[in-house]
Amino acid sequence: MREITASTYEQKTGIDQVNMAINELNMMTQQNAALVEETASASENISDRAKELAEMTEIFKT
Asked: How many angstroms separate the CA atoms of 10 and 33, rounded?
């Protein structure tokens, strides 16, 4: 009976560790998704500014 109890406890501990790891991965994935959105927004902003700058400097080319 003790062996079954010990085995059950080990399985529970292992499952708890797996659950913690999965939760950490989920948190990292959410953080990465937020960073991707921020980067995409910043890239779009930089692209818009580059277009504006190109238009402003066009008069110097003529």
From this structure: 35
Residue 59 DSSP symbol: G
Asked whether the whole model's pTM tops 0.90, one would answer no
Domain boundaries, the chain: 2-61
How confident is the model over 17-35, as pLDDT tens digits? 999 999 999 999 999 999 9
- Write down how long the chain is: 62
Dihedral (CA of 28, 33, 36, 42) sign = negative
The Cβ-side half-sphere exposure at 37, using a 13 Å CA radius, reads 6
pLDDT the model gives residue 62: 66
d(Cα 33, Cα 59) in Å, to the nearest integer?
41
